[in-house]
Amino acid sequence: MTEFQAHLGTGTTKLARCWAVLRRDGTTYGFTDHDCPLTFGGITFKADAGMTARAVMSATGLSVDNSEAMGALSDAAITEADIEAGRFDGAEVKAWLVNWADVATRTFRFAGTIGELRRSGGAFHAELRGLTEPLNQPQGRVYQTPCSAILGDGDCGFDLDTDGFATEVAVEGLVDRRRFTFFDMAGFEPAWFERGRLRVISGAAAGLIGLIKRDRFIGDTREVEVWEGFRTEIAAGDMIRLEAGCDKRFETCRLKFANLLNFRGFPDIPGDDWLVSTPANGAQTVGGSLRRSV
């Protein structure tokens, strides 16, 4: 019998719930529904955040364990600005039942990630998704013409810190938090960063990432536009990192990145047009490949 089970067996329990939230940028938050802070595992679980949670629903099999956390928005804990900026999207969540008189006596109850977040009336509601959630997503490789890897990941193997494929610059001009303009950045070809990433290094939006929609020159000015405007203020002088983009084509992998050995697509796979191809009048049939161009 564990210490926790022995505590339950006394008939008079001293239990509190504790949650740890680990954002993808490394920031950790601790919350408890006890009336005093609790500390274990190097995390202080605050009691003044007004955070509560519904009971965790779990089942055998592959159904998704889920719960919901609720709390008041405050500058001392989770802020509306951070939620709006997307800093809690996909954050890791862990939950325990703890004997508040002896925090070493505890049991682990839940592990997962934050799903949908909504705000209303000065409070937030966060859907908690269990570890079986990824099983609802497609797994394995897809047989397709373009590359299935993400530039710079383990499958791609390309180092974006290679000279000429990333640069750190200060923001010079900004429109609607999505169109960045630079007046002296001609060292890269037009569209070099298209489909790449824009990472904010300093300022209020530090740690946020945007996907680049367009990279072009308008006169002597270079404009880099992201698909979705940042939801946190970015000021002139803030440092950002621009990373080269990849359109996942066979030729791009070979000519732009010299990374053909790691290409994860199937450029010779027949397309839909091959399935419905018909004989052509006057054409000579020699038994060659009907491979379409990519």
TrEMBL record:
Species per Swiss-Prot/TrEMBL record: Octadecabacter arcticus 238
Signal peptide: none
InterPro entries in the cross-refs: Phage_phiJL001_Gp84, Phage_phiJL001_Gp84_C
Pfam families, per database record: Phage_BR0599, Phage_phiJL001_Gp84_N
The protein's name: Putative gene transfer agent protein
Residue ranges of every copy of the Bacteriophage phiJL001 Gp84 C-terminal domain listed in the record: 192-273
